[in-house]
Amino acid sequence: MKTLPTSQSIRVVPQSKMHSGKLFAVAGAIFLLSMVSVTAQAGDDSKIIFLPAPVHAVSTVPANGDGNPYGVAFVPPGFPNAGGINPGDILVSNFNNAQNSANTGNLQGSGTTIVRIPVNGTQSPFFQGAAPLGLTTALNVLRKGFVLVGNFPSPDGMCQDASPGSILVIDSSGNQLTGQTISDPSFINGPWDSALFDEGNKAKFFVANALSGTVVRLDLSVSSSGVTVDSKTQIASGYTFQCDSTTFVDAPTGLVYDADKNVLYVASTADNAVFEVRDAGDTNHDHGRGRIIYQDNKHLHGPLGMAMAPNGHLIVSNNDVINPDPKHPSECTEFTISGDFVKQISVDPSPGGAFGLAVMTRGDVSYLAAVDDNINSLLIWTLRDEH
């Protein structure tokens, strides 16, 4: 890992700015870190800035050569320190296996690893599973000491041949817990992304299903020995889903749960829109797609992973296959929950690099971590609150 040069923070102003970029070589990969279009609407009162300093860039490729990083999750405060990960660490799951010397491999739905990346440190292995696996963006960490990760395997790298998959339960030392895998095709059917509301001994776990266009809530009990499912409820459906030779699948993806509002936000890639599902944490019936809160053909290009910024705005990545814009590749877009565009940032100069992302606040410092799966790397920004 290399710490990149300090750049000036960018204050949001009521006009567009373009900041010319510089290329940096890190572990054999090239990062275009500053060539981003940062745009704000007039009158916007956003305080959270996308591009302060410093920025760190870390390879996500483990020893076995897995690639295509998808899921990103911070280890929360209170997580036990006795295992292989610590509070503040970032976990990244890999969806592809390695390309071998015969130029085969690199198959989507075949990645078996999760790597650990401290905010200011270098990568190390956390979990190595046994094939067939395909670890997705559905990656969350329970503060009692467990990791939940979606498994959406395919024998040939094609969505058409993928199985419904499962949710793996992994302990703090990176060991998969025997007998605790969550699998039920009626509720877990291509787990593509997820959101977690952790209440200690209980948790609400939301999963977006790529093979059915549904979102389910799993109500969990969590103890020192593991996780059990108390109930399963389908809370949303009707999102467009389709296999895609480039992106594997286009389907409901990014999920963010706002416990104060009891609302689940759903980024639906093929619908090119973000929805809200009300009463998500306690409803016992299906609310359909919910209500559209953000639909913006100028700044949305197949919304994927999603996170909530410390200012209450949502940040979503784009897959660049749905409603592509060649002039703005690999964008992460920030918008308000009332549907107003705020700004955007490109994580890679080529299309298709943006996917999983996560935000964490420790004290008065916040971090944004986002994968660039074009070059198998994680970018980490320190967010600055400017007044």
Secondary structure layout plus pairing:
Blueprint: E1 2-3, E2 17-19, E3 23-26, E4 29-32, E5 36-38, E6 48-49, E7 55-59, E8 67-74, E9 90-96, E10 113-117, E11 124-128, E12 135-142, E13 146-151, E14 166-171, E15 191-198, E16 202-209, E17 214-223, E18 226-236, E19 242-244, E20 248-250, E21 252-258, E22 263-268, E23 273-278, E24 291-294, E25 303-308, E26 314-318, E27 331-335, E28 341-346, E29 354-362, E30 365-372, E31 377-385
Antiparallel strand pairs: 1-7, 2-5, 3-4, 6-31, 7-31, 8-9, 9-10, 10-11, 12-13, 13-14, 15-16, 16-17, 17-18, 19-20, 21-22, 22-23, 23-24, 25-26, 26-27, 27-28, 29-30, 30-31
Describe this structure in words.
The chain is globular. It has no helices and 31 strands. Helix content is 0%, strand content 47%. The protein has 387 residues and is mostly beta strands. The chain has a single domain (32-385), classed as Neuraminidase (6 Propeller).
Summarize the structure.
With 387 residues, the chain is mainly beta. The protein has strands spanning 2-3, 17-19, 23-26, 29-32, 36-38, 48-49, 55-59, 67-74, 90-96, 113-117, 124-128, 135-142, 146-151, 166-171, 191-198, 202-209, 214-223, 226-236, 242-244, 248-250, 252-258, 263-268, 273-278, 291-294, 303-308, 314-318, 331-335, 341-346, 354-362, 365-372, 377-385. It has a single domain (32-385), classed as Neuraminidase.
